[in-house]
Amino acid sequence: MSKILHRSIHADLPVAVGGRGIELFDANGRAYIDASGGAAVSCLGHNHPDVLAALHAQLDKLAYAHTGFFTTEIAERLADRLISDSPDGIDYVYLVSGGSEAMEAALKMARQYFVEKGESQRRHVIARRQSYHGNTLGALATGGNEWRRAQFRPLLVETHHIAPCYVYRGRLAAESEHQYGERVANELEAKIFELGSDKVIAFVAETVVGATLGGVPAVDGYFKRIREICDRYGVLLILDEVMCGMGRTGTVHAYEQEGIVPDLIAVAKGLGGGYQPVGAVLLGRHIYDAFATGSGFFQHGHTYMGHPMAAAAALAVQDVVREHGLLNNVVQMGKLLNRRLQERFFNHYHVGDIRGRGLFRGIEIVAERGDKSPFDPARKVNATIKREAMTRGLMVYPMGGTIDGVRGDHILLAPPFIVSASQIDTIVERLGDAVDAAVARSVA
Q1: Side-chain half-sphere CA neighbours of 334 within 13 A
Q2: How many helices (H) and strands (E) does the chain have?
Q3: What is the rounded end-to-end Cα distance, in angstroms, of the chain?
Q4: Would you give per-residue pLDDT tens digits along the chain (444 residues)?
Q5: Nearest CA to 112 among 294, 359, 301?
């Protein structure tokens, strides 16, 4: 019997023993196409030789040095690379060990920024309902997924939430997409007025929503309006691109497609591709300068931040993405994936929406396509689809609570950037069979 406290205590998990390319292998010799990248992590698939070589080389040089005493060449090279790959307005990097750490650090940076500027009265953070920003307490408090927050609510700091930009369920019949985007963006201004125009620290959002909605991008113009409102009231814009960033949508940063630049951006998952735990906060010069000309110290830190092995993995992953032109493959295979999903599910009675960007795509499962009604949560349709997919040698990322943290189901796809056209066809074929089998059980 396992001595690990697994996520699901009663789950009978296969034992992973190896991987190659887009496949993982279990101890019984079964192969699984990793069509979700785990949780949008494995952007290069598994056992990429260039990344393994970089890790071996770094291990022979230096495995660990505490950042209270040293910087390292490999961490400095990674930071230089991340800034060179970012649009103007992003100038510095803070290296951590994962997405929750990145979001926690970004929130504390935002607060300290205003303390350094003499605006210590600013204390409120605004985010969106049905968002997820990590499982540490500050990040969990910022997130707006009620199912995740409920049992920990007594421990969470006060935060505030407005509507997500979720056109499938939020747009009124009389609205254009642009009008809808303006309406939900303007909720931010209303919330700032409610809390006090000089009391808000930051607005936090996923550029393309991942786990809690399933690959949902904002409508055109939404983030430009959000940026305008933040600038008007001196509020920092923190974008969470832990899932959707680092090439997943076809550009290094998903926000590049919105025509804006945030003040702080959190990245992780695709940064290191799963080869080592790594994340980062990328920040504008104005944040850095407030610290540099003030206390000279960011009052935060973790033991493993800037870890040399993690930095080596991340730099190697980003080198492979650049040298092999994989962002172009993300764009091209993303278009193909969307087309195949549309062909397979466009008229499916139990698929209400197909959405996403690049190789970050979601389908929303409904009880009835016509009225968008969800399945009874007790049926756990998303979990059933996951099981049916696994029996067919396919890994997909399921979530319930798409609508309100309780009702609604979706499946997220995030295959590796190296995926081929034939592999896309296999993914969609197996997913279609899994969805059909799962909903047949649920309506029986």
Answers
A1: 22
A2: 14, 17
A3: 35
A4: 899 999 999 989 999 999 999 999 999 999 999 999 999 999 999 999 999 999 999 999 999 999 999 999 999 999 999 999 999 999 999 999 999 999 999 999 999 999 999 999 999 999 999 999 999 999 999 999 988 999 999 999 999 999 999 999 999 999 999 999 999 999 999 999 999 999 999 999 999 999 999 999 999 999 999 999 999 999 999 999 999 999 999 999 999 999 999 999 999 999 999 999 999 999 999 999 999 999 999 999 999 999 999 999 999 999 999 999 999 999 999 999 999 999 999 999 999 999 999 999 999 999 999 999 999 999 999 999 999 999 999 999 999 999 998 999 999 999 999 999 999 999 999 999 999 999 998 876
A5: 294
Question: Amino acid identity of 402?
Answer: T
Record the tokens describing residue 177, joined without a space: 């997409």
| Residue spans of beta strands (DSSP E) within 150-221 | 160-162, 200-206, 208-209, 216-217
| Phi, psi (degrees; rounded to nearest 5) at 370 | -60, -45
Which tokens go with 16? 């992973």
Please give the angle made by the CA atoms of 53, 58 and 64, to the nearest 5 degrees: 145
Instruction: Using alpha carbons, select from 422, 334, 416 the residue that is nearest to residue 44.
Output: 416
Q: How many residues does the chain have?
A: 444
- Helix, strand or coil, per DSSP, at residue 183: helix
C-alpha closest to that of 24 among 436, 415, 424, 386: 415
What is the token pair recorded at 392? 């067919």
Distance CA 338, CA 326 (A): 18
Q: Which of 211, 203, 275 is nearest to 243 (CA)?
A: 211
Under 8 Å between Cβ of 94 and 105 = yes
Other CB atoms within 10 A of residue 298 CB: 17
- DSSP secondary structure of 221-258: THHHHHHHHHHHHT-EEEEE-TTTTTTTTSSSSGGGGG
**One-letter amino acid for residue 16 of the chain:** A
92: β partners: 283
Which letter does DSSP use for residue 151 in this model? G
d(C-alpha 121, C-alpha 119), whole Å: 5
> CA 132 to CA 72: how far, in whole Å?
32
Integer Cα distance of 100 and 243 in angstroms? 11
In the chain, how long is the greatest CA-to-CA distance?
Answer: 66
